[in-house]
Amino acid sequence: MKLWTGRFSKEIDPKTNDFNSSIPFDSRMYKEDIEGSIAHAAMLGRQGIIAAGEAEAIINGLGGILDDLESGRLSIDMSAEDIHTFVEGELTARIGDAGKRLHTARSRNDQVALDDRLYMRGLADSLSAQIRELIGVLCNKAEAYANAVMPGYTHLQRAQPITFGHHLMAYAEMLLRDLDRLADCKKRMNISPLGSGALAGTTYPLDRESVAAALQMDGVSQNSLDGVSDRDFCVEFAAALSLIMVHLSRFSEEIILWCSFEFRFIELDDAFSTGSSIMPHKKNPDIAELVRGKSGRVFGDLITLLTVLKGLSLAYNKDMQEDKEAVFDAADTVRMCLTAFTPMLDTMRVNTDRMRAAAAGGFINATDCADYLVGKGLPFRDAYKAVGMLVALCIEKNTTLEELPLAEYRKICDLFDEGVYAAISLERCVGERKVTGGPAPCCVRAQVDRVRKLLSGAQNGSNENI
């Protein structure tokens, strides 16, 4: 039975009912719907709005429905209009007229806004746990390869020497910011709208704060119109998920490059690769490609939410039913990507010899060569020009800075001596970059230690700096 019968003289058209129904997707919020209703019923009883015995019967009935749904003894009726209708109908069937009092001083508008917030709060927590797991894998890998020299790139051109551990920790920093964003949007998400009614509150003497406390929420909405029409938290959540996918997609792009035959910096485990239907030699990074591709799907969900909300007058409009599918799809997609990406990264094999060989070419120690001249007293711009001429000479002679004879160095600048070869050693170039956040192995290990401490603090209930 529809919750809004009475005004209407005929049943809704079946096809229109299917179009209007939200239970195919909001049924996943059954637990949050029941928990919110239990807190609401308990408050109604405490406030004397309904009899204490009726409140107890409602609470017990709802608890039984939740237990039966969790155990599989009860299935959700997918012909119901939404999860709220199903739960209330099942409750009334079990406990009689007392069940009809559950909706006292409440509208579906504030009820669904509450369910959204509670459910997304859980999504934020579960996704944060997955991100922490991925960061943990990055820390382990970075520690293992803190000394593995590789070329760093700008414009996808070899630029300066770094280590593989340093490169991995760049993604750890991105993911830490993702954790921070999820924690931050959860603050605004964790506010109870219950008590806002349809849009104008209620004349009943509600204790909104006690309901919020029972649901472990941080407070109550301060304007009833905003309480039922606010979906900023959905947009914020989808935006945070979109940035997670940006980071996973960028990482995937590099993994795809690194495992190509041209790079061969890494090899993905067979369990996270696929072959070709026609070319027997192929080993394709399909998981990384799918993660890269699915980023667009999450971005689309964010645009959907923004578009739905941009022209809505206050307060509730049926358009807002579209919030759930977009948010649920975005969260499901991110969860699926993290589930596949983390073990793919954990099991990849790293070819440190190929990385070192790539770093040896491309003149990525040219900046260090210029810095060597600066140490001899030459202004940087003059040193820059001199080394540029050396690089041009090396290209002409098909050699490298390490192999170029000292006599050729001195033809361009007489400040060069034998010490230049030590100065441009790749290991020294990396090892001397000891600035905070730099690629020196000691700095990489310090980054790893810092991130592990942050993760430990987050797991113990502190979100400081993440």
Question: Number of helical runs?
Answer: 19
What does the radius of gyration come to? 30 Å
Task: State the major sheet.
Answer: 2 strands, antiparallel
Q: Extract low-pLDDT stretches.
A: none
Number of strands: 4
Which series of helices and strands comes N to C?
HHHHHHEEHHHHEHHEHHHHHHH
Q: Fraction of residues in helices?
A: 55-70%
Question: How far do the termini sit from each other?
Answer: 47 Å
- Alpha-beta classification: mainly alpha
Averaging pLDDT over every residue, what do you get? 93
Please give the order of strands in the largest beta sheet: 1-2
Overall description:
The protein starts with 13 loop residues before the first helix and ends in a 7-residue tail after the last helix. Helices cover 62% and strands 4% of the residues. It has a two-stranded antiparallel sheet. The chain has a two-stranded antiparallel ribbon with strand order 3-4. The protein is mainly alpha-helical. Helix 6 packs antiparallel against helix 19 and helix 14 crosses helix 15. The mean pLDDT is 93. It is built from 19 helices and 4 strands. A hairpin with a 2-residue loop joins strand 1 and strand 2.
